[in-house]
Amino acid sequence: MNFAIISYNSNFPVRDFIQRVIRWCVANNHEIYISESVFAICADTCQHLPKIVMDDDEAINAADVVISVGGDGTLLRAARLVVGKNKPILGINIGRLGFLANIQQDKIETALEYTTTGNFEIDKRQLLEAHLSDGSTHFALNEFLFSKGPKGSMITIDAYYDDVFINKYWSDGLIVASPTGSTAYNMSAGGPIVMPGTDVMVLNPINPHTLTTRPLVLPSNKPLTIEANIKNQEVIFSKDGEISDITGNELVVKIHKSLHSIDLIKLPEQTYFDTLRNKLMWGVDVRGNKPDH
Q1: What CA–CA distances, in Å, run from 220 to 123, 141, 205, 224?
Q2: Which of 56, 72, 172, 240 is an active site residue?
Q3: Of 42, 84, 93, which is closest to residue 60 (Cα–Cα)?
Q4: In a 3-state reduction of DSSP, which class is residue 79?
């Protein structure tokens, strides 16, 4: 089997874990492809040389499975790289939470063994797709975000669903989250948790000026249109944390469920609700841990 490793220099000690993946693949006669930038992370101590290619795209094209080594941010970047390529992603968590990249450090070799023997399930995650008025197309696994600029003023954004006016939002920003992204920024901003595989998207204002404005769950098979005048206010548009340049006086973005999806490798004993309980402490009653007085 051919693997590609996607990783980035970060505050996390990814080097040692990249080397563990490479050692296991070499010992078990599997090819591993890494870009020059990934090789630079571990080149000084790398004892087993993988196949080194120019960039991540070339590594992914040569691979059957993509291994993300890092945190959820690394997996989100890997997800953007595999759009339309039908390459499953094995997410190894070296970060803090690891909600998407949920293979823990002590399970690396086990996860690789399961993957090469076919002892895993595919957790298919639908992407959101956005079309901007400048003709560009963007994909997000977690969310699209419309946020205020560094000047700190609230922004005004209009939202339409299937060409029907929803609301004018005066807030710090607006999140359009997928079910996968419902447990990310959306949840931090008070939005609901949505089961992956549900054909919906969440429209969630950030710190709205009106107390009655609440998150809204919409079917994702029809377009959600976001409009903002960017001549008189600074609006930042981003996808999964990556800022995109926007030009002109008017920002118009049409968002809907994409035909593309991302395949995450899930080990046999993993479930979504296990992840909620273990990673988010979902449903945990901490009252029993309080000292008696």
Answers
A1: 19, 13, 18, 8
A2: 72
A3: 84
A4: helix
d(CA 62, CA 134): 33
Q: 152 CB contacts (<8 Å, ≥6 apart)?
A: none
Can you give the pLDDT at residue 47? 63
**In 178-249, where do the E strands start and end?**
200-206, 216-219, 224-229, 235-239, 242-244
pLDDT digits (tens, 9 = 90+) for 199-255: 999 999 999 988 888 999 999 999 999 999 988 889 999 999 999 888 778 899 999
- Residues 216, 220, 221, CA angle at the centre, nearest 5°? 140
| Cα torsion through 111, 117, 120, 125, rounded to 10 | 90
Largest CA distance in the chain: 64
Domains with residue ranges and CATH for the chain: 2-120+267-287 (3.40.50.10330), 128-260 (2.60.200.30)
Report which residue type is found at 95: G
184 CB neighbour count, 10 Å cutoff: 23
Residue 72 annotated to the active site: yes
Token duo for residue 165: 């006016």
